[in-house]
Amino acid sequence: MSIRQLNHAVLRVTNLEQSLAFYRDVLGLALVARLPKSAHSEEMLFLRSPHESGNHHDIALIGGAVAVPGGMGTSTQPGLFHLAFEVGTLSELEEMHEKLKKVGAFKFSADQTAHLSVYANDPDGLTVEVLWREPNSAWSYEEEMSRAPLDFSASRKVWGGELKTGAAAS
After folding, report:
1. Residue 77 lies in a domain
2. Residue limits of the VOC domain (predicted)?
């Protein structure tokens, strides 16, 4: 027996509407359900990818969090470091890069061993990675992983802009 895949993550947030705006309007997840506040729980929002997800929801947001001084991404305490979302093409990653810069959430981008990534902060400071996977045939487990600055122009020369990989390739 083994785990097959991660099904969903639940994030406790300080402001449901701000977080909804980020995950829905910026990242493009679809709001699929709401659970009203009750004696047992704060209000919850359930979101999923509008494309390939076979899950009821991929992310749930639950209100009632108290802000962490300095933001979530600054702590060395144990806990979630970041979430990663996958896009289907390099062009989609470039579009997301521009969108994240436009809303002031962009942190940095990187060319990593098996994928190209753009990093941002959500409204509570949680680091969110948006990535495009290089084709599996390009991966090597023999080499040490590396991280370099992402050059979209150079990456387009290697991969083109419309090569579908990961879940988008199926």
Report:
1. no
2. 5-133
Tell me the C-alpha distance between 86 and 139, whole Å: 17
Among residues 66, 92, 107, which one ends one of the domains? 66
User: Where are any strands of DSSP class E within the chain?
Assistant: 9-12, 30-35, 44-48, 59-62, 82-86, 106-112, 115-121, 127-133, 147-149
Asked whether the beta carbons of 87 and 129 are under 8 A apart, the reply is no
Q: What pLDDT band is residue 21 in, cutting at 50, 70 and 90?
A: very high
The tens digit of pLDDT for each residue in 137-161 reads 888 888 888 899 999 999 999 999 9
The number of domains in the chain is 2
pLDDT digits (tens, 9 = 90+) for 6-19: 889 999 999 999 99
In a domain, 101, yes or no: yes
Q: Same structural domain for residues 106 and 167?
A: yes
57 lies in the same domain as 95: no
Alpha-carbon gap, residue 8 to 5, rounded angstroms: 9
Instruction: Name which of 87, 83, 93, 84 is nearest 126 in CA terms.
Output: 83
Q: Which residues form the domain of 59?
A: 1-66
**To 5 degrees, how large is the angle CA 130–CA 134–CA 136?**
125
